[in-house]
Write a structure and sequence with these properties.
about 280 residues; Jelly Rolls; four-stranded antiparallel beta sheet; 4 helices; 13 strands; about 25% helix
Length: about 280
């Protein structure tokens, strides 16, 4: 049916084109006087054939093209993979802490989340910090340091590199402590964001649930110390001869004396046997 309609359009197009062609011939009627009617008729026949061939090509191209109303199946676009956004541990910035007081910051973390970054006092003054959950925060506020067991802490330094993994769900806090200090402090907190696919040596560290008890050098008040990694698990008072010990410091919660200990690896004993 479409082919018959195209053929009718073809005939109409030829007739209109021929009329226009003959009109042009009439415009140059003066040529008739030169060539006569026979030559003019031949010219008309040649023009008709040329137009017939040209319109035939146009019709054949139109038949080969698909109907614009026919629905063409389209491939569905691939659904982009959306990764979970990074999680901010806590707002970065500088926190002011009054002399003799403390300041707690809620951490946006859950079980197995790594917490790593930098804590520094902008005037390079010493301060203490702890990372603890709700029950231990209560012990801290009560100054019940026999029960207070933070998962990370350090004392009497102007800056710290924090590197710890949260062992359980619940609410966790960063505590900036200025106890027994005469001047206020401004501490900048700059923790790294937690990325779901960003696995670094820092995030592979696992905090051990237990630790070793060490007494204060001055008053022998006990303090639980945790190894920094899975290799350095021996607590010593002096640095080892190999020089690969990890130095830690803490301030006694009773007399506020600063203590130093070293976590060391297990080094194989090498000896010599005398053969007779």
């Amino acid at each position: 049916m479409n082919s018959g309609r195209l053929q009718d359009n073809r005939i109409r197009l030829v007739v209109k084109s021929l009329s226009a062609f003959l009109g042009a011939i009439l415009l140059v009627a003066g040529l008739v006087n030169l060539f006569g009617y026979v030559v003019t008729g031949l010219i008309a026949i040649v023009g008709f054939l040329v137009l017939w061939i040209a319109t035939g090509q146009v019709v054949s191209r139109a038949i080969q093209q698909p109907n614009s109303r026919t629905a063409v199946p389209q491939s569905k676009p691939e659904r982009p993979t959306v990764e979970r956004d990074s999680k901010i541990v806590c707002p970065r910035g500088t926190y002011s802490v009054k002399a003799g007081g403390d300041h707690k910051i809620r951490l946006n973390v859950g079980k197995s989340d790594p917490v790593g970054g930098l804590l520094e006092e902008i005037s390079e003054q010493p301060f203490d910090y702890y990372i603890a959950d709700d029950p231990n925060l209560v012990y801290f506020k009560q100054r019940n340091f026999r029960k207070f067991k933070p998962i990370a802490e350090d004392h009497n330094e102007p800056a710290y590199h924090v590197n710890v993994r949260i062992p359980s769900d619940g609410r966790w806090w960063l505590i900036l402590d200025m106890y027994n200090l005469k001047f206020s402090r401004s501490v900048r907190v700059d923790f790294e964001e937690i990325r779901p696919t960003d696995i670094s040596p820092m995030t592979e560290q696992v905090v051990k649930p237990g630790g070793q008890s060490a007494g204060c050098d001055k008053c022998n008040f006990p303090q639980t110390l945790y190894p920094p990694d899975s290799e350095r698990i021996i607590l010593k008072s002096d640095r080892c001869a190999q020089g690969d010990s990890a130095r830690i410091t803490w301030r006694c919660n009773k007399c506020h004396n600063t203590n130093v200990r070293y976590w060391d690896r297990r080094h194989p004993l090498i000896g010599f046997a005398k053969i007779r």
